[in-house]
Amino acid sequence: MTSLENQIRNSARKFLEDGQVSCVIGYERDARGRARPAFIVKADDTERLIWDSDCSLNLVNYLHSRKSPPGKDQPIPKTAVVVRPCDVRAIQLLINEQQLKRENIKIIGITCAGTDINHQLRTECEFCQERIPLIYDVLVEPEKPVELPASQDAYADIEEMESWSSEERFDFWTKEFDRCIRCYACRQACPGCYCFECVAEQVDPHWTSIALEVPEKMFFHVMRAFHLAGRCVGCGACEAACPMNIPLGKLNRKIAKEILELFGYHTGDNSENLPPLVCFNPDERLKI
Amino acid sequence: MKVTTQNKINEWLAGFLQKSVVIAPVETEGKFVYRQIEEYSQIAWDFERTDMPPKTAVFPMTEPILYIEQGSKTILKNPPLPKNKIVFGVRPCDARSMLALDALFINKEPIDPQYAHHRESVTLIGLSCPQMWDSCFCTVVGGAPNSTDGLDILITKVGDHYAVQTFTEKGTELTDKLISEEKDLAIPKPVLTENLPTLQKSGEWMELFNNIFWEELSQSCISCRACSFVCPTCRCFDVRDELTAFRPGVKEFERLRAWDSCTAAGYRRIAGGHNPRDTQNKRLRNRFYCKFAYYPDDFGPLGCVGCGRCIDACPAGINILEVITRVEQMTEREKVNG
Predict the structure, then answer these.
(1) Residue A162 maps to which CATH number?
(2) Do the strands B237-247 and B31-36 form a parallel or antiparallel pair, or are they unpaired?
C-alpha cells in the first residue's frame, strides 16, 4: 500500500484528468515546512499535495466559495476536497442545510490519526472514536491500521470544567477573551459560519458594540457558540485559526455535549436530519 | 557609551512605575502582548517578537472619539486627554511602524487629534534585537534589528550589561534617572537573515496589478483580518455612534472607533450595497498594494516594517515575504522578456 500522500496525489490526479472536478482542495507544504491549503487545477500539480498532523484547517470551508454558479447559465463547479472524519461531518451538515450538493463534491477521505493545534495533538483527537470518514469517494488508508484511543470519554476536559463554579468558569473565559483581538478568524475558518453578514457586524439593527472589549468579545464568542449549537462538527478549525491560542473548542464542545445529551444528536451523522435547534419537530422530546 | 546592569534597569523601571503609566511586554498563556504593568517583575524579557505590536499605545483597539448628548440641544464633548505613557521593550521594527502611522495621522492634514495626543504622550524605550528572528524581514523594507528610528531610547543587551543610547529630550528626561557608567562597550552587530528578496518599487507593483498571481494567492485567504490586527502599521478603523444612555428627551451617544481591516468582506461595502472589493482577490491584493504601493506613494514611508507577525498569524499560510519574492521574480521576468 502506498503512503497516504501518494494515495491523495493519485486520486486527485485521476479526478482532474478524468474531468470529474475542476479543482482539488488539499494541503501543501510552505517554505517554512507548515501545511497550508492548496488549490490544484492541473494534474501535474497534484505532486504538491501532502498530509501530516499539521493539517488542521477545515478545507470544507473553502467549498462555500465554490457552491454557486460563477456566472449566468454556468454550472456549479465540481470540487474534490481532502477531509478528515470530522471535516466530512461538515459536508453532511452543509448538504442538510442546502448549501452544498453531494454530486458536486468528490470526497478524498483520510483515515485519520489526529491533527495538531500549536504542535500538540488536539484534545478532540485524543478521544475521537472515528478513524474513517462517514462518507467518501476515495478512502486514503495508512500502511499500518490506526488504533482507536483507549478512552471513550470525549468530553473529559468539559466535565472537569463543569465541576467548576460559575465564578471560576466566568473568570477563566474572561482571562481567555482578554487576549482575543476580535479578528473573526475563528468565524471565517468555520464551515458552519457562512452568514453573508454576521450579527456581530450588522449595522442595522446594531446588535452589539464594535468595541474590542471583553464584554463584547465574550458576547461574540458565546453567541457564535450558540449559533453553532447542534451544528459544530468539532473540526477545530476555529482553534487552528486563532492567532492568540484561545481554546475555543471548549465552548463549542460543551454545547455539543449538551445537544448529545438532550437530543441524542451528533452533527453530521447523515445529511437528512437537521440539527435540533434549526428545525421544529413536533415529536421531539428532550432526554432530560 | 552609557552602560548599565539589569538591576539598575529594574530600579529605573520601579521609579517610573510610581508616577507614570508603563506599558511593557508580558506573557499571557504563551503569547507576548503589551500591557500596562504594576511591577517590573511582570515584564517578559525572553521574547523574540511580541505577538501583538505596541501600536495599541497610540492607536487603541477601541476608543471613544466624541461624546454626543442629543436633547433639546446637541452637546458635543471631546474625550479626556490620554495620560503620559512609557512604552518599554519596543523592538526597532515596531518603533519604525510608529513613524509610518505618523505619516498618515499627524504629518498630513487633516490631523487625527486622538492619535496626535497619544503620540505626544508616549516615550518609546527600545530593546535591540541581537538577530533577525524566524519570519523577520526588516532589512527588506529599510529597517534593521538595531535601528534607532523613531525611538527615544534604545537599550542593547551585551553579555551581562546593557548599552543605553538616548536620542531625544523626552528620552534624556528618563535616562537622566538611570544609574549607569560611561564605558567603552563593543556592541556586536546583529545577525542578519540571508538570501532575502529585494522589494520592488510601487511602479513595478502597479505593473502587476492585473496579474493572475493575486487571484491564485487569494484562494486560500479566508478574509479573517488576523494579519491586519497583528500588524504594527495597519491602521484602518470603523466608526459607529453607539447609544450609551437614554432618558426622557435625552439620548447620549459615544462615537467609537475600533480596529477594522480591508481584508474583511464588508469593509468596503457602501450604502446601497455596492462593494468595490467584493472578491477575496481584490481585498487581499489591496492589502499588499496598500503597504508597498499606495501608502508610500501617498504618505512617504512603506506600510510594512518587516516584523513578520502576519506570516505567523495567517491561518491559511499566506506569506508576505513570499509575495515580495514573487513580485521580484515576476518583475525580473518582465524585464528579461522586454
Answers:
(1) 1.10.1060
(2) unpaired
Question: How would residue B319 be classed by pLDDT, with cut points 50, 70 and 90?
Answer: very high
Q: Note which residues in 159-178 of chain A have CB less than 8 A from chain B.
A: 175-176, 178
Instruction: Kindly indicate the confidence band of residue A288, based on its pLDDT and cuts at 50, 70 and 90.
Output: low
A212 inside 8 A of chain B by CB: yes
Task: Give the number of domains in chain A.
Answer: 2
A121 shares a domain with A38: yes
Query: In which order are the strands placed within the sheet that holds B153-158?
Result: B31-36, B21-28, B85-90, B122-127, B153-158, B161-166, B2-5, B181-182
Average pLDDT over residues A64-69: 94
User: Using alpha carbons only, how large is chain A's radius of gyration in Å?
Assistant: 19
Comparing CA positions, the residue from A18, A165, A148 lying closest to residue A80 is: A18
Average pLDDT in the B71-78 region? Answer: 96
Q: Which residues of B touch A244 (CB under 8 A)?
A: 31, 51
Closest to A249 (Cα-Cα) out of A171, A157, A166 = A157
Residue labelled with grid coordinates 543605553:
B164
In a domain, A150, yes or no: no
In three-state secondary structure terms, B5 is strand
Is the Cβ pair A212, B62 closer than 8 Å? yes
Whether the predicted pLDDT of B189 surpasses 80:
yes
The pLDDT confidence band at residue A1, using thresholds 50, 70 and 90, is very low
- Picking from B131, B164, B306, B277, the residue whose alpha carbon sits closest to that of residue B214 is B277
- Chain A CB contacts of B28 below 8 Å: 175, 178-179
ipTM of this model? 0.92
Contacts (Cβ under 8 Å, ≥6 apart) of B160: B5, B6
What are the backbone dihedrals phi and psi of residue B258, each rounded to the nearest 5 degrees, phi first? Answer: -145, 155
pLDDT exceeds cutoff 90 at A200: yes
Q: Is residue A117 part of a domain?
A: yes
Q: Is residue A151 a part of any domain in this protein?
A: no
Nearest CB partner across the interface for A39, out of B31, B219, B313: B219
Distance between CA atoms of A114 and B147, rounded to whole angstroms?
44
Peptide bond into A205 cis (omega under 30): yes
CA–CA distance, A5 with A263 (Å, rounded to integer)? 39
pLDDT confidence tier of residue B107, bands split at 50, 70 and 90: very high
Rounded Cα–Cα distance for residues B252 and B245 (Å)? 5
pLDDT-derived band at A2, boundaries 50, 70, 90: low
Question: Nine-digit cell at B29?
Answer: 498563556
Quick: pLDDT tens for A124-134.
888 888 889 99
Which of these, B171, B308, B310, lies nearest to B229 by C-alpha position? Answer: B310
Residue A276 lies in a domain: no
| CA nearest neighbour of A181 among B268, B278, B255, B309 | B309
Is A63 an 8 Å CB contact of chain B? Answer: no
Give yes or no for a contact between B136 and B193, defined as CB atoms under 8 angstroms apart.
yes
Q: Please check the confidence at residue A203 and state whether its pLDDT lies above 90.
A: no
In chain B, where the domains are located: 2-337
The shortest CB-CB distance from A188 to any of B135, B222, B317 is to B222
Residues of B within 8 A of A241 (CB-CB) are: 222, 224, 226, 315
Distance CA B322, CA B196 (A): 10
- Domain of residue A243, residue span: 156-263
Model pLDDT, residue B216: 94
Surface of A (78-117) touching B: CB under 8 A: none
